[in-house]
Amino acid sequence: TFGLPLIEAMASGIPVIAADASSTPEIVGDAAELFDPTLSDTLRAAIEALLSDARKRADLVSKGYRRADQFTWSKTAARMFEVFSIAMQTHRSKKGSRR
Known about the structure:
two-stranded parallel sheet; 99 residues
């Protein structure tokens, strides 16, 4: 699912709390409160921080909207086309070098 639930939450104006693991930090950028998934106290602290700080919640919502805008379907399609084009060029050049 890549990070679709995270992107959907940010696009919906939900302040995101996410594990600082895998590709999650790359997906959310600075638009989420990250916690160490190996330490349960860090999740509790992240939840408490957002519940007690309206300014922090509003900041994450604002950053979340901006971050989610970077993941549009048209941008994804354009990037995939670019990746496939490079892959095809690489394949053709390797195929041609075997002759």
